[in-house]
Amino acid sequence: MLDIFKQILSSLIKTLLIAGILTSIINYFTGAGYIETFTALICIQFVASYIWKSSARFILESKLIDEETKRLELYAMQGTDVTCSHCNAAAFIPVRFDEDNSFDCEMCGKPNSVYLDVTTAQKTTVGGDTSKINKIIDNAIKDES
Length: 145
Ligand SMILES: [Zn+2]
Prior knowledge:
Layout: H1 2-30, H2 34-77, E1 79-83, E2 90-94, E3 103-104, E4 111-112, H3 130-144
Antiparallel strand pairs: 1-2, 3-4
Helix pairs in contact: 1-2
Bound molecules: zinc ion.
């Protein structure tokens, strides 16, 4: 609580100091009224500070939303859909190779172990020879008409 009061007090002192210095300069060169200039400068500083803080908060919030979206996308890339081994309820769990992937079911609360099985397969090439695919499509169209 004390920190907040210190912060408010220091920013008030800064605002008054800046307004005082600027008022002196303006008064010296233009001879404008001291109290009017001082009050106007304080008001301008409050408005500028409000606009600055609002836009900073807006930028920060949109950055946080972007970060959260990226984090969720990464989470979705590294996860998989599974079913609980006790109650068969569907669940989405993150999958990692460097950690034990066991999870507690959200429906029944019982623990589940996760075993990963990695298989390999030959890559299929698409687009190497499209003439065969085009012939198949042409024949299918002919058969339908
Ligand atoms: Zn369950």
